């Protein structure tokens, strides 16, 4: 699952309540996200994960925002060096990045989204 986050739109109180356990995000981004668009495949095949990441990158091209991708064990070590990574948070369980990050991650041999 990938989330897109941006400033200035939506119910800030609701968003803050849902993401209260992620204080690092605002520090890394330099703004307080106020809404999210969730994109998920809810399937376990590789093509489903690739399609979800690429669809998210395409949506980002249109509406902007930052992708928040939940990570599996050991993914943070190689993701941190990919183009478009804004930061790694939540003790290496979350990557924040641009559409470029999602597209470059899809091309990595260890690419996999958290279901």
Give a quick rundown of the structure.
With 115 residues, the chain is of the alpha+beta class. The protein is 38% helix and 21% strand. It is globular, with a radius of gyration of 13 Å.
Explain the overall architecture:
- There is one protein chain.
- By secondary structure, the chain is α+β, with helices and mostly antiparallel strands.
- It is built from five helices and five strands; from the N terminus they run βααβαβαββα.
- The protein has helices at residues 12-18, 24-29, 46-63, 75-79, 99-106; strands spanning 2-6, 35-39, 66-70, 85-89, 94-97.
- β4 and β5 (94-97) form a beta hairpin.
- The termini are close together.
The string of secondary-structure elements, in order, is EHHEHEHEEH
Quaternary assembly: single chain
* SS elements, strand count: 5
User: Rough shape?
Assistant: globular
Low-confidence stretches: none
* Major sheet size, sense and barrel closure: 5 strands, antiparallel
In whole angstroms, the N-to-C terminal distance is 6 Å
| Overall pLDDT | 81
Biggest sheet strand line-up: 2-1-3-5-4
How large a portion of the residues is in β-strands, by DSSP E? 15-25%
Q: Count the DSSP helices.
A: 5
Helix content: 25-40%
Q: Structural class, from helix and strand content?
A: alpha+beta
Gyration radius, in Å: 13 Å
